[in-house]
Amino acid sequence: MFTGLIECTGHVVSLRRGGDRAVLEVAAPLPASEIRIGDSIAVNGACLTVIAMQGDRFSFDVSPETVTRTTFSASQTGSSVNLERALRLGGRLDGHLVTGHIDCVGRLESRVNQGNAVVLGFSLPRDQARMLVEKGSVALDGISLTVNTVTDSGFTVSIIPHTLEKTTLAGVGPGKEVNIETDIIGKYVARLVGPHAGSAGLTMEKLLQNGFI
Torsion-angle region of residue 169: left (phi > 0), alpha (psi -120 to 50) or beta? Predict the structure, then answer.
């Protein structure tokens, strides 16, 4: 589990593909003395397991599912990535609960300066857009952000100078693809009220029977 508060940025050293797996190597200023083989680190929002370390370089196994669901399929040597180590129980949760499980890839459609902030507009698949709500949370490349506005196929977020300085968002322009994790609460609600909840779904009668109204 993560918070969406980026610890540092690093860069891709290589993405080696072989058969049905890939190995991602990242160089980053993480405290190697505090990291062990098997630890989880969110790389651009995707929860990956450390399988090897050497100096400031960290290697991760990347499953076919992860490659398919994320922007790793287009990763290039030298490209910047956001990094966050797993949340420790008892620590402060200053962002929001982020699982590190990417839901989809979104695309930056607009970038507008607004006072001291930058408003970014993203498009994403409609089935994922329904998981977002105005003033709810979303993670973009692992960054915890508040949703400004939502449409059927997109949303906007406002980026403050600190976030621009500490993450990879400073250099993104229209057309750039990002990993998106929608709010975990929205996923559970959608599952409960959707077609998988049974033919009747969530009804006023059920809410009454269970004491919600």
Answer: alpha
- Residue with the two structure tokens 């400004």: 148
For residue 118, the model assigns a pLDDT of 96
Bridge-based pairing state of the strands 143-150 and 46-54: unpaired
- In sequence order, the 6+-apart residues with CB closer than 8 A to the CB of 145 are 4, 137, 138, 139, 157, 159, 163
pLDDT score recorded for residue 10: 97
DSSP state of 167: S
Q: DSSP E strands: which ranges in the chain?
A: 8-18, 21-27, 40-43, 46-54, 57-62, 80-85, 104-114, 117-123, 137-140, 143-150, 154-159, 177-182
- Statement: residue 213 has pLDDT above 60: yes
Q: Is the confidence at residue 85, as pLDDT, over 70? A: yes
Q: Are 155 and 121 in contact (CB under 8 A)?
A: yes
Domains of the chain: 8-85 (2.40.30.20), 104-182 (2.40.30.20)
- Per the CB < 8 A criterion, the answer to whether 7 and 166 are in contact is no
Q: Each residue of 117-161: pLDDT tens digit?
A: 999 999 999 999 999 999 999 999 999 999 999 999 999 999 999
